[in-house]
Amino acid sequence: MTSAPTPTAATVATTAVVKPSPRGRRRPPKGAPADRLTGARWWRTLSWRYLVGVVACIYAVIPILYIVSASLNPIGSVASTDLIPTVVSFANFEQLWNNPSRPFFRWALNTVVVALVVVVVQLIFSCFAAYAFSRFRFRGRRAGLLSLLLILMFPQILVTVALFQMFSIVGEVLPAFGLDTLPGYILIMLGGSLGQVYLIKGFFDTVPIELDEAAKIDGASHLQVFFRILLPLLQSILVISGLLVFVGVIGEFLLASIFLRSTDVKTIAVGMQGVLAADQSNNLGWFAAGSVVIAVPIILLFQYLQRYIVGGITAGAVKG
Question: Tell me, what is one Gene Ontology molecular-function annotation carried by this entry (predicted)?
C-alpha cells in the first residue's frame, strides 16, 4: 500500500484558509442600534425636511379653509369670516340656483362647452403637427420649430388689441363669430395649441421609430401608423395636455372679460368676478360657494386621471 504524500510547505501555503474580506461580511439589518439616528443627528439631517413639509402644507391649506369657511358663512362678509366657521349654513349654495340675476350654472355651462371644444380641437391639431415635426424631415422643419418657440415667448396681452379689431370686423360679416359670441371666443382660445405641439412632440420622440418602420413593412400607411400604433402609446401625454388646456380655459379671465360682455355668454371666471366686484363685502359668501362648486369636479377629475398623469411623467423620464 502506498502511503499518503507528506505535505510540503508549498502545499500548506496553497491550502491556507482565506479570511473573508470586510466587504463580504453580512451587514447588520436596518434598524439595528448601530444604524439608529441619535436625536442630534436626526435633527441635523431629517428635521428640516419635515419642517418644510409642514410649513408648505399649512401655506396650501389656509386659503382652502378660508374659502370653505366663507361659503358656509351665512353673512358672507370679509370681517365675519374665520378659518373655522362658527355657524354653518348652506344659504350661499342655495343662491347659486335661486338668483336669476346671477346665472351661475349658465356661466358654468358656457365654460364647460368652451373648454371641451378647445381641448378636443387643440389635441387633434397638436397631435398631427407634433407627429409631422417628430417623424418627417422636410425643408423648413427647424425654422418652423424655432418659430413656434419664438411665438410662445410673447405674452397673449400683446395681441389683444389686434384680436379685438379683427373680430369686430369679422362680426360685421359673420355675426355668429364676432365679438360677444361663444364661437368667436372659441376661435380665439384655439390659438393656444402651439404650446401643446412641443409637449406632444417630445413624447413622440421617445417612441422608437423602428415601430413605424415595422408597420410600414407590413403595408401600413402614415395614418394607420399614427392611429393604431403611436396614438395608443401616448394616452398619458394626451391626458396631461387635455387637463392643462381644460384648466387653463376654465381659469382664463383676461380674454374672456374683453370679448364676452353679455350676461348670457359670460364664462364662470368673468361672471363671478363681476358679482364680487359689484359688492365685495356682501357677495363674498356667494363667490366662495361658487368657487367650491367649480373646484370639486376638477379635483375629482384629477383623482380619476391620476394614473395617466403619473404614467406620463415617468414615460418622459426615459428616452427610447
Answer: ABC-type maltose transporter activity
Confidence (pTM): 0.77
Q: CA 164, CA 180: separation in Å to the nearest integer?
A: 11
Q: Three cell numbers at 14?
A: 496553497
Rounded-to-integer distance, Cα 202 and Cα 245, Å: 17
Closest CA to 88 of 75, 67, 74: 74
Pull the grid cell for residue 57.
402644507
**188, 255 Cβ separation under 8 angstroms:** yes
Half-sphere exposure of 63 (CA within 13 A, CB side): 6
Instruction: Classify 103-315 by CATH class.
Output: mainly alpha
Residue 10, all three cell numbers? 508549498
Instruction: Classify residue 23 by burial, with Cβ atoms within 10 Å: 0-12, 13-18, 19+.
Output: exposed
What DSSP string runs through 275-295?
HHHH-HHHHHHHHHHHHHHHH
User: In the block, which residue shows the cell 397638436?
Assistant: 126
Q: What's the average model confidence in pLDDT over 83-99? A: 82
| Rounded-to-integer distance, Cα 162 and Cα 81, Å | 43
Q: Please give the DSSP secondary-structure letter assigned to residue 154.
A: S
Phi and psi of 16, rounded to 5°?
Answer: -65, 145
Outline where the chain has alpha helix (H): 9-14, 39-45, 47-72, 91-98, 104-135, 141-153, 160-173, 182-189, 194-206, 210-217, 222-224, 231-233, 235-251, 254-259, 268-278, 280-304, 306-315
Q: Give the span between the Cα atoms of 317 and 320, in whole angstroms.
A: 10
Mean pLDDT of 3-32: 50
Amino acid letter, 251: G
Burial (CB count <10 Å: 0-12, 13-18, 19+), residue 293:
middle
Average the pLDDT over each of 100-114, 172-186, 196-210 and give the range with the smallest value: 196-210
Report the 10 Å Cβ neighbour count for 275. Answer: 19
